[in-house]
């Protein structure tokens, strides 16, 4: 029995990438993690508060 692939919390599709991001105890595609304020993709440093991620 094969393990189930992780599903992205942002787009709800399986993550088959070599790497995935873990944010707020959930798995994400790198391109699906976005700033909660401006909705721009996050690259670099971010922080999460009340389950919302913000870009620094």
From TrEMBL:
Top-level taxon of the source organism: Eukaryota
This protein's UniProt keywords: DNA-binding, Homeobox, LIM domain, Metal-binding, Nucleus, Repeat, Zinc
Cellular localization per UniProt: Nucleus
Domain LIM zinc-binding, first and last residues per copy: 6-56
GO molecular function: DNA-binding transcription factor activity, RNA polymerase II-specific; metal ion binding; RNA polymerase II transcription regulatory region sequence-specific DNA binding
One of the GO biological process terms: neuron differentiation
UniProt cross-references to SMART domains, sorted A to Z: LIM
GO cellular component labels: nucleus
Database matches in SUPFAM superfamilies: Glucocorticoid receptor-like (DNA-binding domain)
InterPro entries the record matches: LIM_Homeobox_TF, Znf_LIM
Protein name per its UniProtKB record: LIM zinc-binding domain-containing protein
Originating organism: Terrapene triunguis (Three-toed box turtle)
């Amino acid at each position: 029995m094969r393990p189930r692939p992780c599903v992205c919390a942002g787009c709800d599709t399986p993550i088959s990438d070599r790497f995935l991001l873990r944010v707020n105890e959930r798995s994400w595609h790198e391109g699906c993690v976005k700033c909660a304020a401006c909705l721009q993709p996050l690259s670099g440093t971010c922080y999460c508060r009340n389950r919302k991620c913000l870009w620094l």
